[in-house]
Amino acid sequence: MTTTPADRSARQHTLRLGLRANLAQFTLLVVVNALVGGMLGQERTVLPLLADDVFHLSAYTSALTYIVAFGATKAVTNFFAGTFSDRYGRKPVLVAGWLVALPVPAMLAWGPSWGWIVAANVLLGINQGLTWSTTVIMKIDLVGPERRGLAMGFNEAAGYVAVAVTAVATGAVADHFGLRPEPFLLGAAYALLALGLSTLAVRETRGHARLEAAGHSGSRNPSHHGELSTGQIARRVSLGDRALSTASWAGLVNNLNDALAWGIFPLLFAAHGLGVARIGVLAALYPAVWGAGQMLTGWWSDHIGRKHLITAGMLLQAVAIAAVAIGTTFTVWAAAQVVLGIGTALVYPTLLAAIGDVAHPIWRARAVGVYRLWRDGGFAVGALLAGGLADAYGLTTAIWAVAALTALSGLVVAVRMYETHPRSASPAHAGAG
């Protein structure tokens, strides 16, 4: 049956923007993104120890190859997830991401060589790039401009609380049963449940983006009407626009930090004699505070603006990472993980909200994809940088170097980024999207 313009117009009028109007689908997408985070959380405690205890990888750079594989693959997939979401719709991309995830837990649980673990992380990177990017885009579609920060807070909170809960759970399971295969059975359950929900219950949201675009404020600048190629969008997000490009740099450094926390911190804690269960608690504290805090910080950025929260968050992260380098006890490390989580909570949803502020609804999905390409490239950069420095100069030197780089990033945001929130932006940048 052919769909006429009148039919499309009538269907569009049945759509409404806003959190309350789309609460059921928004809540479902929060649940799905929690399962996305759980897939990542199954690795946070166990995999660094697996590299050392089971596969006997002596060089830190070699041990962190799984993070390089994950980060590089996820970064590239983010870019294509945004493009495919604009071209084919959000839901097909989401379902495809979960199909890719199905073999990952089995490969982690029974892979006979380290190459299998790296290959599993390539698939995990594709899964995370397709599914996390799509849930971000879909939530932005649903809520409209007024609650963008709150929406990102809920999305990222769900994902990273699930990372934390799963890190604790897998650490406890590994402490009782061993590093393989039992900790990864939880990931298998997550993948099956998420595929079912995404296929049967999630609805397409591309129509909501078109509805917002139809009412978007006019401008004499054609880019404000969505008339940009993918190459133009990539240049604008990477270099051209001061807010978009600074956000991309800050996002890269933020996930560089996460690579350090994921791959180096557990090895440092183990070198000081901590057991697997206590390492699991420390590995979970950071994403738990990060995750839960985003429900507040995303909402907060809707009221006071984006720039100052991002600046403060990057500087707090630098302080926390330095404290990990200085510390030698569980108590000091736990406090540092909490501060690191607070700093990341200030940054993470706020950066995504800033991208959504500036990008036009028609090319917003691709802008999010480019931003996430840079941001998640930080995993690969962080693993290579931290691993190389740890091999050459030791774990503590690697941690100090990342702390300094994070502080520098905060200063760059303070100097270069302009405020993007519509109610807080200066007249020169208001309506820049």
TrEMBL record:
Residues 22-421 form the Major facilitator superfamily (MFS) profile domain. InterPro entries: MFS, MFS_dom, MFS_trans_sf, MFS_Transporters, Sugar_transporter_CS. The chain crosses the membrane at residues 21-40, 60-81, 93-110, 116-137, 157-178, 184-202, 309-326, 332-352, 399-418. It is a multi-pass membrane protein. The keyword Kinase does not apply. Keywords: Cell membrane, Membrane, Transmembrane, Transmembrane helix, Transport. It is found in: Cell membrane. This is MFS transporter.
